[in-house]
Amino acid sequence: MTHDTSKDPRILVAHHACARLQRAAQQKSGVKLSVSKEKLVELASSADSAVMTLMYMYQEPRDLVGSDPMSDLQGTTGALTEALEPLLASESAPALLKANFAWCLRTLSGLPSRLDGPAGSMAAGVDLVAVQVRNVTMIGTLWRTRVSDGETEYTVVTNIPGVRVGDVMAVAFLPPREVGGEISEAMFLGDEKRGESPGSHLTAEQIDAREAAAIMHEELEHR
Fold first, then answer.
1. How far apart are CA 41 and CA 63, in angstroms?
2. How far apart are alpha carbons 78 and 72 in whole angstroms?
3. Contact at 8 Å (CB) between 176 and 185?
4. pLDDT tens digits, 39-97
5. Taking the domains of the chain in order of start, what are their residue ranges?
6. Which CATH fold topology does 124-221 show?
């Protein structure tokens, strides 16, 4: 039976990332890039074209990994990453814009590895990762945490009590959003402490990712 790539959650989320990427490319950042805005928009459009081709190839997911459209997508994502490096490294650029670009690039660059694993729910379209909590600060009724995957730190705003520095927990890298006046780049998948090393990728079979899947369903319905 031919795999229906048009309904594959991993490709659907990648397509959503392309839509967000194209919107972000139109916004003013206040940071000078090595390419023009027109070129940035062109690259974002090229990424979307590659994902759309993958969406309607109707091949087995693992066959898509080595396909020409996937190669095109990874090349374009690499060019976008290089072009956006000054913005992503800037402390003066709008925080939400930076986080949006970072999420889109993460989602697109990680598509081959996701296609090589189980499809499962819509949560299969985003990275589920073990991270270590590095800092916890209370903001109103919420907690602003800084977590690390062993290489990079991210902000996670949560209403889960009892999160402590040093805890290793699972997060889903969902589209960033403003929560309590802070930009949250991921969501804790429950309050369970994990035994994996920070940076370990998890699957929806290893962790309860139903809330992450529900959020992605809502994202795709209202994009």
1. 29
2. 10
3. yes
4. 999 999 999 999 999 999 999 999 999 999 999 999 999 999 999 999 999 999 999 99
5. 5-117, 124-221
6. OB fold (Dihydrolipoamide Acetyltransferase, E2P) (2.40.50)
Determine the angle formed by the axes of helices 95-109 and 68-89, rounding to 10 degrees: 160
141 Cβ neighbours under 8 A, 6+ residues apart: 159
pLDDT digits (tens, 9 = 90+) for 146-157: 999 999 999 999
Name residues whose C-beta falls within 8 Å of residue 7's C-beta, 6 or more positions apart in sequence.
none
**What is the pTM assigned to this prediction?**
0.95
Cα distance between the two ends of the chain: 31
Query: Mean of the pLDDT values across residues 25-36?
Result: 93
Number of H helices, E strands in the chain: 7, 8
pLDDT of residue 192: 94
Task: Match domain 5-117 to its CATH number in 1.10.760.10, 1.20.1440.150, 1.20.58.110, 1.10.3210.10.
Answer: 1.20.1440.150
Sign of CA dihedral 139, 143, 147, 152: negative
Q: Three-class SS of residue 2?
A: coil
